[in-house]
Amino acid sequence: MSVSMQCTLAKEVTASGIGLHSGKNVEMKIMPAPVDTGIVFCRSDLAHKPSARVTPQVVEISPLCTKVLSGEVDISTVEHLMAAFYGAGVDNAIVEVSASELPVFDGSSAAFLMLIDSVGVQKQSKPKRVIKVMKEVIVEDGDKIAMLKPDDHFSLTLELDFKHPVIPHQKCKFDGRPSYFRKELARARTFAMQRDVEKMQSMGLALGGGLDNAIVVGDFSVLNAEGLRHKDEFIRHKALDCIGDLFMVGHPILGAFVGSYTGHAMNNKLLCALMADENNYRFVEIPDTNDIYSSDAF
């Protein structure tokens, strides 16, 4: 049986949108890249166009987003694009951005997936490598827990509790296959409490945030006129974020992710713990199927 090959974009694609925090227009270009390049972010607005390859070590801890920080490269809110790369099967790409954040679009991964799909994905000449979890790895911070366990497929079990009447306590398990992500998770939007948005904007943050790119939660209702895209859209977006955060390791992961009240910082802490010990994982090549990262592929 042939193995799954690395993929990149068939050709470059460009887009522009509003930055979540600056409220200013951001230009973005996603370009094909050679095998084993990984995902590279580049600041096109700075001299010499400094760049940084995605690894867990270049993630700057932030409670609000996943930020790439390496030398002069400082780019926020990369997790929605990273999740889209996972969903599209893209291993290698160069992302040029004209500011210190990516466009927020509608607050989900849907627009990023649409951009990638508009140019297509090209198979390359070397096998795709997947990180297979061999030992349980767990990190904790108070009641926050993030864990990866050995399994024959990728899944996510998440629990959240904001102690808010509009966002009930939830615990759900999600299929981690790219096909499921595209169908069930990619359109789930980021969300924020109205009181938090107002506070952030008074501090000069979230200036681009609004009802067109986030779910805004009032004291007793969702303020978006169209309501929710899924009745459990909040936890679905948390799953989307986790997928984007985990893909910061540069490879798909084969294992079961379990998170209770986890966020970007905990997800990155877990990745660093996973990669700190070579006994925790091994690289595997996988069969070329239409729906990889499932037990059917082994």
Low-confidence stretches: 294-298
Arithmetic mean pLDDT: 93
Oligomeric state of the chains present here: single chain
Question: What's the architecture of the largest domain, going by CATH?
Answer: 2-Layer Sandwich
Task: Spell out the key features of this protein.
single chain; 298 residues; alpha+beta; Ribosomal Protein S5, domain 2; lpxc deacetylase, domain 1; five-stranded mixed β-sheet; 20 strands; disordered C terminus
Concise overview:
The protein has 6 helices and 20 strands. The chain is of the alpha+beta class.
Account of the protein in words:
This protein has 298 residues and is α+β, with helices and mostly antiparallel strands. The protein folds into 2 domains: 5-127, 2-Layer Sandwich (Ribosomal Protein S5, domain 2); 129-297, lpxc deacetylase, domain 2 (lpxc deacetylase, domain 1). It has 6 helices and 20 strands. The protein has helices at residues 79-88, 110-119, 178-185, 194-202, 233-246, 264-275, and strands at 5-9, 13-18, 25-32, 39-43, 51-53, 59-60, 67-70, 73-75, 93-97, 121-127, 129-133, 137-141, 144-149, 155-160, 170-175, 191-193, 215-217, 253-254, 256-260, 281-285. A 5-stranded mixed β-sheet has the order 2-3-9-4-5, with helices on one face. Strands 12-13-19-14-15 form a 5-stranded mixed β-sheet, with helices on one face. A 3-stranded antiparallel β-sheet has the order 6-7-8, with no helix packed on it. Helix 4 links the parallel strand 16 and strand 17. Helix 1 (79-88) packs across helix 3, helix 1 packs across helix 5 and helix 5 packs parallel to helix 6 (264-275). The longest helix has 14 residues, at 233-246. The chain is globular. The protein starts with a strand and ends in a 13-residue tail after the last strand.
